Amino acid sequence: MAPNDSAETTGTAAGGSGRRGRRAARYIVPVAVAGVAAATIGLVPALASSGDPELPEITAQELIEKIAASDTERFSGTVKISTDLGIPSMGGLAGSFLSDAGKSGRGGEDTSSADPQSKLTELVSGTHTLRVAADGPDKQRLSILDDASEYSLIHNGDQVWAYDSATNAVYHAEADGADKAPRGHDRAVPEGVPTTPKALAEQALQAADGTTSVTVDGTARVAGRDAYRLVLKPEQSGSTVGSITVAVDAKNGVPLKFTLQPSGGGKAVVDAGFTSVDFGKPAASSFTFTPPKGAKVTEADEAGKGHEKDARRAAGKAEGDLRAVEEAGAPKIIGKGWNSIAEFKAPGGAALPTEATKGVPAEAQQFLDALGDKVSGKFGSGTVFKTRLINALMTDDGRVYVGAVTKDALVAAANDAS
Q: Does residue 287 come out as left (phi exceeding 0), alpha (psi in the -120 to 50 range) or beta?
């Protein structure tokens, strides 16, 4: 495997000074993998291919244990993240949606464009270059680099700062009280935001079970470092996941690159990894921040007030929706492992009631239509909404089937449940 020219990333982090520290750190320095229960582990060590680094033989079980034992909490470097779910282009919708996310909602009050709750969600699609640095659970920095601007999120002790150079906007949150919860928002950053390869690797390993083949497939050079290639493959047919490859640093056990290939072929759904990395102590200046002159500073509790009106307005509707969900009951899980499908009833008893589509912009309706395929079977008829990874069948009588499985697997599950 050639050096990582197009590595990409995502991540979470452990611990910290109180709950706020834990939440902010979670996005930079991931906790160790607990292990892979009941997985089909390859016990035969793999050898390096010609041109790849010559490393001591290691089994998949030993490599997983190496990841779990890794306690590296200091590093700095550059990463790339590329996500391609195969969702049709939304044209101008995406831009307007993301800009609206910087407002409180229907009420229209502006909050900071630097608010991590809206800004970091941009990482879940497209290709992005990041600079990252961490010095233990209390100091992390993440910067998203664009052609003409930069967005930075800095966590230092009980302070969290975010700065958007494009708008000269600053967001600030600080601990309040013994539990160190950030004021104004439930959490400093949204969950599921990619920042380092380790969290992706952890999630994949924790999902592995008796339906997964786990092997070592040779070695590689990633960001100038020697690495082993750990490969996870679903043993069942019908999953949209073809394989997951994790390049693991041969010296310290840190995942350096994560690649999820779809079963349907083509480019990776997720390709995340370091292009350069240094495991030394980052400069202290990496975690300091002073708002630039003229910048508009929004405090977290200030931003939170902008959402209160919308929260009250939505409370009545949310209460009704909650009752509908409770009446529908918990989702039923069909199948196991990578072929697990969640079955539940849509609130209101219809998958796409007419009222739900009233007033939908033409572009949005075209987007929904592009995602959906009409299907029928013993269950009746419905629509499969598809991406390259997660698909959902919504039947006309209000049942929903969701999973990382193919359209045919969803239809078969609906037929079996009829």
A: alpha
Q: Where are the alpha helices (DSSP H) in 192-252?
A: 197-207
- CATH 3.30.310 residue ranges for the chain: 329-417
Q: Where in the chain is the domain with CATH 2.50.20.10?
A: 18-302
Between CA 193 and CA 117 the distance in angstroms is 10
**What is the helix (H) or strand (E) element at residue 301, kind and residue range?**
helix 300-328
The C-alpha atoms of residue 307 and residue 319 are separated, in whole angstroms, by 17
pLDDT-based confidence at 175, cuts 50/70/90? low
Backbone angle region of 157, left / alpha / beta, with phi > 0 → left and psi within -120 to 50 → alpha:
left
Tell how far CA 165 is from the center of its chain.
24
pTM attached to this predicted model: 0.75
Q: Which of 157, 156, 161 is nearest to 173 (CA)?
A: 161
pLDDT digits 0-9 by tens, 204-213: 887 777 789 9
Nearest by Cα to 164 from 68, 292, 64, 3: 292
Task: Kindly provide the residue ranges of all beta strands, DSSP E only, lying in 283-353, ordered along the sequence.
Answer: 296-299, 332-334, 341-345
Pick the CATH number of 18-302 from 3.30.160.20, 1.20.1510.10, 3.10.20.600, 2.50.20.10: 2.50.20.10
Alpha helices (H) in 49-115, listed in sequence order: 60-69, 92-100
| Main-chain phi, psi angles of 110, to 5 degrees | -75, 140
Q: Residue type for 382, please?
A: G
CA distances to 27, 332, 365, 384 from 344, rounded to whole Å, are: 31, 6, 24, 15
Q: Give the contacts of 404 (CB within 8 A, at least 6 positions apart).
A: 239, 240, 241, 338, 389, 390, 391
CATH class of 329-417: alpha beta
3-class secondary structure, 350: coil
**Average pLDDT taken over every residue of the chain:** 75
